[in-house]
Design brief:
Elements (H helix, E strand, L loop, with lengths): L2 H4 L1 H15 L2 H10 L5 E2 H5 L6 H14 L2 E6 L2 E6 L1 H30 L2
Helix pairs in contact: 2-5
């Protein structure tokens, strides 16, 4: 059995946690702010939003637990930065699923046309 197939349950759990984290519009907006690659503080991420620093922190922890952001301490505050690797992994997963659906639809089309 290939490594790819052996890790599917674990991969599915990781993918599900990323999709769940990305399923919130507030967290997607935070990722957009982090997309330039520069680490940002909680205060900076809260600027221009209706969110408290505590709410921003909770959203960032969800993103961090999903692996799409990472934090580092700088003095008394935490700086958060986007980690693009998990997003690339999700994209590759979605590309695989898309190819599987395309193949299945092509087989269905062929079957229907040859009947």
């Amino acid at each position: 059995m290939s490594k790819r197939h052996r890790n599917r349950p674990r991969d599915a759990k990781v993918h599900a946690s990323i999709f769940a984290a990305l399923g919130d519009p507030t967290r997607l907006a935070m990722l957009a702010k982090l997309a330039d690659g520069a680490p940002q503080s909680i205060s900076r991420l809260a600027e221009g939003t209706h969110l408290t620093r505590q709410a921003v922190t909770k959203h960032l922890r969800v993103l961090e637990n999903a692996g799409v952001v990472r934090s580092t301490r700088v003095g008394r505050e935490s700086q958060f930065a986007l980690d693009p690797k998990p997003l690339g992994d999700i994209r590759a997963y979605l590309d695989t699923v898309s190819r599987q659906w395309d193949d299945a639809l092509a087989r269905l089309k062929s079957f229907a046309e040859n009947r």
